[in-house]
């Protein structure tokens, strides 16, 4: 029997405050959109930033921590698996959405380091991280720049 792997690891920023809901049994469910960026060739030696948006859903205790400590602009590490949902809209058209079901969410910046949004209260920025929210070793505030490709048809290796 062949083995399969369904694993996603992302580092990005929240596009909005998390949406917190509860199942009928009281299980917390948090959803948020995560933005990741990459530099891509734009022609004639120029580069541009491209943003990719990811839908993330979190359940249980991890969802509670996300609801309590995350806000728009926070830098997070998300690890989980892909799940695709399908449904029919009011016109009978089949629709699909793919989301990441997170098993681990790491808070990579403190609330004080995150970009402050006008609607964000100072009290929410002062909240501290949870026990699982930080990696064991400090994570850098910014990742190192990738070297630009050496004119190998835009291939960086």
Account of the protein in words:
There is one protein chain. The chain has one domain (8-126): OB fold (Dihydrolipoamide Acetyltransferase, E2P) (Beta Barrel), CATH 2.40.50.140. By secondary structure, the chain is mostly beta strands. It has a five-stranded mixed β-barrel. It is 10% helix and 44% strand. The protein contains two helices and six strands. The model is unreliable at 116-157 (pLDDT under 50). Strand 2 and strand 3 form a beta hairpin. It is globular and about 55 Å long.
Percentage of β-strand residues = 35-45%
Helix/strand order: EEEEHEEH
* Separate helix tally: 2
Mean pLDDT: 79
Number of strands: 6
Helix content: under 10%
Distance between the termini: 35 Å
Structural class: mainly beta
Supply the CATH class: Mainly Beta
The largest sheet, given as strand count, sense and whether it forms a barrel, is: 5 strands, mixed, barrel
Count of all domains: 1
CATH superfamily: Nucleic acid-binding proteins
Q: Report low-confidence residues grouped into runs of 5 or more.
A: 116-157
Briefly note the CATH topology name.
OB fold (Dihydrolipoamide Acetyltransferase, E2P)
Search tags:
6 strands, globular, 2 helices, 157 residues
Task: Summarize the helices and strands and which ones pair or pack.
Blueprint: E1 8-14, E2 19-22, E3 28-43, E4 46-59, H1 60-69, E5 75-88, E6 94-107, H2 122-126
In short:
This protein has 157 residues and is mainly beta. 10% of the residues lie in helices and 44% in strands.
């Amino acid at each position: 029997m062949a083995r399969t792997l369904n694993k996603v690891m992302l580092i990005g920023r929240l596009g909005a405050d998390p949406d917190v809901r509860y199942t009928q049994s009281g299980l917390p469910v948090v959803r948020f959109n995560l933005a990741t960026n990459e530099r891509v060739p734009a022609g004639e030696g120029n580069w541009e930033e491209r943003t990719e948006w990811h839908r993330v859903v979190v359940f249980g205790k991890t969802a509670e921590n996300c609801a309590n400590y995350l806000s728009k602009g926070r830098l997070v590490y998300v690890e989980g698996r892909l799940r695709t949902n399908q449904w029919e809209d009011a016109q009978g058209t089949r629709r699909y959405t793919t989301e990441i079901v997170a098993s681990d969410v790491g808070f990579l910046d403190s609330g004080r380091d995150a970009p402050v949004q006008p609607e964000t209260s100072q009290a929410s920025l002062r909240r501290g991280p949870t026990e699982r929210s930080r990696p064991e070793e400090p994570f850098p505030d910014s990742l190192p720049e990738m070297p630009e490709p050496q004119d190998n048809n835009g291939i960086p290796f």
